[in-house]
Amino acid sequence: METRELTVVAGSFVGFQLLFSVASPLLSYAITPGYGQQPSTKLTEWNSRLVSTVHALIVGLFCLYILWFDDAVNANPVWGDPSLVKLNVAITCGYLLYDLVLLACNWSTMGDSFFLCHHLAALYAYGYVLTRGVLPYFANFRLISELSTPFVNQRWFFEALKYPRSHRLVVLNGIAMAVVFFLVRIAVMPSYWASVFATFGTQDFERLGLGAQVAWITSCIALDILNTVWMYKIARGCYKVMTGRGGRKAKEGAEASSSSDGKHVNNHTD
Asked: Where is this chain compositionally biased, Basic and acidic residues type (predicted)?
């Protein structure tokens, strides 16, 4: 890993920590009085999700720029010039490290073994990009999924502020969440896997070595299975909200489920 990437990882780690502990409380107090009414455990979750949203917007928009304008990466998806992608991945690695520290410091209220494994696996996979500069196109393509994260977080903010699920803003955000989630995680699957299969048997693919090949393919399969399951749940929830189905029992069940999910959840399956 080059000095530039190490500096970006360290800088983003510190930056996200400052955003969590300083900027988020100040900004949240200014935006809504409801922030100060949250219990301490929810304040931690609130600040964490605000940081998650900022990270998702930075990385997701940077991904789109690379996809549209980085000709070197698009020309050779396995070994193209990874400079911009490595910069974006370094930002994400700094965020993941910050989030792991936050998780460790609040394990009693935010502990989640799946979440921990997700972050460690992501850091392992991104390590290949940062150290060897491999698979820049595919790493960038995967990070585009972060664009759905702000809508997922906004749904949580509405629930924390006790907005009714029939509220217009909640409904609109739910529809936007379903549409964007589908576009950046489901609709892109055929194009993504077509690009993956096109590399099989090529010299570029063989140069990767077995370790990188296995880490790449298995992680992609696992993530797409999860994304499909999550898309089904999101679509079902969106349909119920739009049609007003479920009544009181469904609402109470959803609220109970929301309460049981009070622990930190994985908002970015990059």
From this structure: 261-270
**Structure tokens that stand for 241 in this block:** 């909200």
Of 82, 51, 43, 79, whose CA–CA distance to 66 is shortest?
82
Q: What is the pLDDT of residues 150-197, one digit of tens each?
A: 999 999 999 999 999 889 999 899 999 999 999 999 999 999 999 999
pTM, whole model, 2 decimals? 0.85
Structure tokens, 270: 């990059």
Task: Provide the Cα torsion 66, 69, 74, 76; round to 10°.
Answer: -100
Residues shown for the chain = 270
Phi then psi for residue 78, to 5 deg, are: -95, -40
- Would you call 209 helix, strand, or coil by DSSP? coil
Kindly give the residue spans of alpha helices, DSSP state H, lying in the chain: 3-18, 24-31, 40-69, 71-75, 83-105, 107-110, 113-132, 136-143, 149-160, 168-181, 189-199, 203-208, 210-243, 247-260
